[in-house]
Amino acid sequence: MPFSLLLTLLPFVLTGIAALYSERAGLLHIGIEGFILFGAFSFASLSSMGGVPLSLWMPVSLFLSLIPALVFSYLVVYKKANLYIMGLAINLLAAGLIPVLSQFLFKTKTLIRFTSNEFDFYIILGVLVLSIIGAAFILDKTKPGLRIKAAGSCYKLLSSRGINPETYQFTALMTASGLAAMAGVLLALTINAYVPNISSGRGWIGLVLVFMGFRKVPGVLLAGIFFGVSEIAGQYIQDVIPPALSLITPYLLGLIAIIFSQNANKSDTFHP
Amino acid sequence: MSFRQRIYAGISGLVLTLLLLLFTTDSPLSAISAFFITPFSNPFYLFGLIALSLYLLLGGSAIISGFKAGGFNLGGEGQIYAGMFAGSIIAQLLPYESGYVGSLLILLSAAMSGAFIAYLSALMRKYFKVPELLSSYLLSRGIIIFLDFLLSGPLRDTASNLLAGPKISEAFLFDSLFASRMHMGLLLVPLLFILVHRLLSKSLWAQETDISGENTFLAITSGIHADRRKIEAFSLSGLLFGLIGGFILLGPMGRAMVGSSGGFGWSAITAALLAGNKTKALIPAALFLALLEQGSQSALVFSNFKFEVSFIIQGIMLILLALPFTKKILKRDGGQDAL
Fold this sequence. Notes:
heterodimer; A: mainly alpha
């Protein structure tokens, strides 16, 4: 049970931290869902080829996922493309590209299976946990993290000090996309497969976690754990509450959380 | 957004479609023919194309109305679905003798339910500063899950093999043309669109809403009730999406079905952006997107074209539309982006 809980809550935590990176930089990344799918698909596709340990395929799959992230982040930050439309575009591209590639490579649009062994599994899991800790630490306790926050809230102050805010915004979006892809890798690894809609709205829940956690790293981590626990609990109470109704919980909680967090800050600090 | 940019986006969409038809199908020529010619030569597809474009006219207008309020309505799918569901409930309660009067009442209830959901988002913005972008999406997802549960569970029509509610009385349904999704009720849409166009473009309300969305302080000092205008505009957005649900219900389907919102909530965004946020330009934009979708469907049937390719085309077009000029028309409220 504790291990399955860990596997359930880690994707939430990853997407929460991903969304927090973007939100701190003043950019709400609504394309996280698409990058989860890219990460999961690329990892499953490479892993299904075999011949190489999965723990080596992971960085390759992340690299492949970061290619669209590079284009996305560059266009948004340096070419001033509208972030929300770009996010929608990424989600649409993922919905379109992945089935087409899947059909082309594997002659199927549904299941892509691969096998894993315990050693690779734990290596990848360890890397992901360390990534969460590292990302959280950097965002909250280091100078680059502070500059990312400044790029979002005091853009002109940063540039007046000779620091290019765009560099930090770009880095934040790339990091967010990378963490989202990692969440996808974990989702695929958990079931040893890629299935359509493997993300199941976790990208949007990541945004919700930012507000539930009051835009703070410990809060987002706790909110992610809460969602993981809720999902596990939902599996045990299916006899009492229909599963479909428990699926509504994240969205309902998310709305409530956003309402309270916006009021708690007592200022219109959300700058979409 | 410049006219040229929109044209480039449209042309890029066409070129990309051609390339994908050439390189992803076994017989490119028949795929191209199925995509570009069949929708016009086959009555089923032609009327399907007209129906799609009419739905996109309404949907695009809904998105534009949301933009006027300074918000981004991402809850279109849920509002359409809620409209369809509410309409089907009202249909069960109405006597079949009410005929087309009943149909109008069904449409009205569908519109009101969509409007109500959007109204909730607008209220959350006013009282709790929750961006409509998030609240509309979260509400929509929750509603879709809940209605899916109802339609596949307690309210499912067990007499049919579908995950759907009971069929509504034939007396309310509009006749379908050539068994396509085009039905006689959709002939109301052009009239509605003219009204909506006048409301969103030519009216005093439109001007006041524009100012309210652009600069709330200026609106207030000009004596405009800015909050009210924003709420009205966003509610109108939901109303139009709800209407789409009502029209879908009163067509060949005749019942609220799981997953039947048709993706119009998302396609409408592309339509609105392609139209540069202008209702008049929605006509060619909606026709163009309808052709892309209908063409994909006929190419799917007559060749091995993959339907998902239409998502790729839309995604690329959105990227082109997202580039710099879009920011200007979507920037609202005194330097604080509404999006």
